Amino acid sequence: MNSEEITLRKAEIDDKNVIWSIIQQSIERRRQDGSTQWQDGYPNEDTVESDIAKGFGYVLTVNGEIAVFAALILNDEPAYSSIEGKWLSDGEFVVVHRVAVDEKFAGKGIVKKLFDHIEDFTRSHGIQSIKVDTNYDNIAMLKILESKGYSYCGEVFLAGGVRKAFEKIII
C-alpha cells in the first residue's frame, strides 16, 4: 500500500450508502468473530447520517476509494467522564468511535494507517490526546491499539456494556 494515495477527509452525505455498506460488513465480521460488539442494531443508518450531519464522520480513502469509516468527536463523550480507572490526561481530546473497514482492505494494516492520520489530525488541531474504547472481545482493535502505543486506562460503560478504554498523549 506504499504507492497508494491515502487521505483522511470529512465524510459527505453522498458517502452515506458506501459507509453504511462498510459498517454492515463490519457488523457481520464482528458476529463471525464471536464478538457481541455491534450486534444489537447499533450502529445503524441513522447513526451514519447523524455522524455526517454533525461533522463527526471521517473516511480514509485509498486512491479515492473509501476504505475505512470512523467518527472523530472533539472533547465530547459523556461516558468517559466516569471511568473506572484513570485517564492519562484531562485536557482536550479526540474520541474515536465506530471504526469500520471495507472487506477488501481488511487485514492489510489500513486501520493502523487510519490511526496515523488521526494522530496527525489531533496534532494539527493542537489537541492533547486521543481516547478510544472497544469491546473486550474485539481482539483486532485491541492489537491495533497496543501496536500504536495506546495505554489501557480502565473501563467505561457505553451502549449498555463495559468497554476497555485507552488513551494516547499526542502533544
From TrEMBL:
Organism: Chryseobacterium fistulae
InterPro entries listed in its UniProt record: Acyl_CoA_acyltransferase, GNAT_dom
Protein name per Swiss-Prot or TrEMBL: N-acetyltransferase domain-containing protein
Domain N-acetyltransferase: 6-171
Coiled coil: none
CDD domains registered for this protein in UniProt: NAT_SF
Alphabetical list of Gene3D superfamilies matching this protein: 3.40.630.30
Gene Ontology MF, one: acyltransferase activity, transferring groups other than amino-acyl groups
Short name of any one Pfam family annotated for the protein: Acetyltransf_1
